[in-house]
Every structure is written in C-alpha cells, then in structure tokens.
Amino acid sequence: MPQGIIAALFVIGIVLLAVEIFIIPGFGVSGMLGIAALITGIFLVTDSLLEGVLFTGGALVVLGIITFLSFRSPRTRRLWQKFSLSTRQTSKGGYVAPKVQYEVYLGRVGISLTQLRPAGTADFDGEHLDVVTEGGFIGPGKGIRVIAVEGNRIIVREEKKS
Prior knowledge:
By secondary structure, the chain is of the alpha+beta class. It has helices spanning 3-22, 29-45, 49-72, 74-83; strands spanning 109-112, 119-124, 127-133, 143-150, 153-158.
C-alpha cells in the first residue's frame, strides 16, 4: 500500500481526535472515525493480523503509561485540572443530604392529604411526608399504610376498612 495513504490515515485520525477533544465535546462520530483511521493505519503498516493486534495493544499500553505518569507529574497535573471539575459540594456550602431514616414508618397507618397519583403527600401522626403508591391512584382523605421504604422513597397502599 502506498506510504502516502497510510500517512494520510494517521494525520486524519489525529486531526479527527483533536476535533473531538477540543471542538466537539463528547464521544461521537469524529472520535470513532479518528480511532478507526489510526487503527486502520496501524494494520496497513504491519504484515500480518497478529502484528497489527500486537502493535495496537502496545500502543494502548504505552498511551496508558504516559497518561498515568502525566497525572503524577506536577507540570502536566495543571493541564489535567483544566479538564476536570474542581468545585465541591460541602456541608458548609449548604449541601446536606437528608439523614431521616424512613424505615421507622414501615407498617404505620396515615391519611393521604393530596391525591396520590401515584405521588403525593400524606400525614402520619402530624408529620407530612412525600409518598408514592404502588402505581394506583388514591384520593385525598383516604387511609393508607406504608408497605415499603426504599432509601428516601416511601411506598404506600390504601388501607381497606374492615
């Protein structure tokens, strides 16, 4: 195969990857085409399929080592920090997850305050909680029972009067 075509594949692959990294964010068509052009160029340079696989694997290993070492180097660490988000959500900033343990409500009976279709608000001994039904609708003022708790999600069922 002519050397010009192989060199063009490498150049096109690198240009497409640069476009993917710096112009079009994400992993899309230009990134996949760039990777395909580079791998095709490697396979066209080699004499056999096994050589192509070994060269491609070796290139990936070397690239991984270079990337790992660049995270360790103080000079290139600043470059990587430009690509990452450095803000943190701290409790001083007001980012606090709820610590309520809703498992204590399991089996308790309450009254629906709003229509539950399927989500709404219910009253359990003076405490108003956001609840979800199993999928059906429950009107306001109906008796309900907590049948399951999944994290912050309280699942209720209409309490049938006997």
